[in-house]
């Protein structure tokens, strides 16, 4: 494809059909509904699949297979196998995000598991079940991801130290400004004012707490299960002169007592686990003072895809967020209603998350050497690259979304 987005005439060198997996691959790739995919095979063979006249202009991906194991992983285990192959260095792409966006656009057509794939899926589902979010399981699962170290996240997050979707609701915003806009909108939506006492469930590295206390003059009680986050956030409040307004605890949300004028929870519900969704929403209701509101930002999966997602185990659950589970929009609303809460307002901004992830990925690429100096290896770097690009592709194709709900 040239710089104009047009496809050049190229010589297509097709591997022999007798090569392992080629007949299965061609059957799968014949199902491409939109866009085109270029595959370069081990030994240099090349083939293009799909139709450049279908789908969004320029929807095109390319993959270079370094060995046949890469192909067997993909055909057996779908997106999980694709990610495992990338982590192992079995394949590369000149544009990882473009490739994953193309595959996301064609997911229903190409991701159908073989018998061996279904066996692999059951093993992964068992692993996911064993990562359930009991109190001990939650501490373990949160530590797995967030306790990678503050030095690691500091390398590529913006100065607000925020690891959630930014809100690009005005033209020309930097990542840092868009993160602050996210905080401001949530605070405004729940009606925070000076002197209010707000509970933050999942306080992260203290970005929202600093905004609520420093900008609005609120009292904040924040809870996290990450020791690393607590250390950083506590020092941050002290350095900002806000420790008299902010109390941060290493505490499970299920163990919080008291009542609050408002509650904010930013991308915490994804880590709760399906079994504890009723508990989470009942805690919101129980901890709110009469007339108070709760602002919850959460990643959601498309309603029509939820059952298939629920009965599988994806790359994120296996390698990035053990015990994680995305709800759908209808499930969030139903769980809230069951707890006696109503949806007061709602905002979806999935493309803003795609832009956030693109910025994180760009930053991550510039600090690869620094990450390795922290002791992480090439496999870890490739795992994180795949994770960031995989998520961006999902948001760009609408398979997942991010939403701010206000419950009253």
Automatic annotation (TrEMBL):
GO terms under biological process: lipid biosynthetic process; methylation
Record's keyword terms, sorted: Lipid metabolism, Methyltransferase, S-adenosyl-L-methionine, Transferase
GO MF annotation, one: methyltransferase activity
Active site (catalytic residues): 391
Gene3D superfamilies assigned: Vaccinia Virus protein VP39 (3.40.50.150)
Pfam family, one: CMAS
Matching SUPFAM superfamilies: S-adenosyl-L-methionine-dependent methyltransferases
Family from the record: Belongs to the CFA/CMAS family.
This protein's name: Cyclopropane-fatty-acyl-phospholipid synthase
Taxonomy of the source species: Bacteria, Pseudomonadati, Pseudomonadota, Alphaproteobacteria, Kordiimonadales
């Amino acid at each position: 494809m040239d710089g104009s987005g047009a496809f050049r005439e190229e010589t297509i060198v097709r591997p022999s059909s007798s090569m392992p997996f080629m007949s299965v691959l061609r059957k799968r790739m014949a199902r491409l509904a939109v866009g085109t995919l270029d595959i370069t095979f081990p030994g240099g063979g090349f083939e293009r699949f799909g139709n450049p006249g279908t789908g969004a202009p320029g929807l095109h991906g390319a993959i270079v297979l370094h060995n046949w194991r890469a192909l067997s992983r993909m055909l057996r285990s779908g997106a999980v196998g694709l990610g495992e192959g990338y982590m192992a260095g079995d394949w590369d792409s000149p544009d990882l995000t473009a490739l994953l966006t193309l595959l996301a656009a064609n997911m229903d057509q190409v991701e159908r598991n073989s018998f061996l794939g279904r066996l692999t899926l059951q093993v992964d589902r068992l692993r996911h079940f064993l990562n359930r979010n009991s109190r001990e399981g939650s501490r373990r699962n949160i530590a797995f991801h967030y306790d990678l170290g503050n030095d690691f996240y500091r390398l590529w997050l913006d100065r607000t130290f925020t690891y959630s979707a930014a809100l690009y609701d005005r033209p020309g915003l930097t990542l840092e400004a868009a993160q602050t806009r996210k905080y401001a909108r949530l605070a405004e939506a729940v009606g925070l004012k000076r002197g209010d006492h707000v509970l933050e469930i999942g306080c992260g590295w203290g970005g929202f707490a600093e905004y609520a206390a420093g900008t609005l003059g609120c009292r904040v009680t924040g809870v996290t299960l990450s020791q690393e986050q607590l250390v950083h956030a506590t020092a941050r409040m002290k350095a900002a002169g806000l420790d008299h307004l902010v109390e941060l605890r290493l505490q499970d949300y299920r163990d919080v007592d008291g009542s609050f004028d408002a509650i904010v929870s930013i991308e915490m519900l994804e880590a709760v686990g399906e079994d504890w969704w009723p508990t989470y929403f009942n805690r919101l209701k129980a901890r709110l003072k009469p007339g108070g509101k709760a602002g919850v930002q959460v990643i959601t999966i498309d309603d029509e895809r939820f059952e298939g997602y629920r009965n599988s185990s994806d790359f994120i659950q296996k390698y990035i967020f053990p015990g994680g589970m995305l709800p759908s929009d209808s499930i969030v609303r139903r769980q809230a209603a069951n707890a006696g809460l109503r949806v007061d307002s709602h905002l979806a901004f999935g493309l803003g998350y795609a832009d956030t992830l693109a910025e994180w990925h760009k930053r991550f690429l510039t600090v690869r050497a620094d990450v390795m100096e922290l002791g992480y290896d090439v496999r870890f770097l490739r795992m994180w690259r795949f994770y960031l690009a995989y998520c961006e592709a999902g948001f760009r194709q609408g398979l997942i979304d991010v939403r701010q709900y206000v419950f009253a």
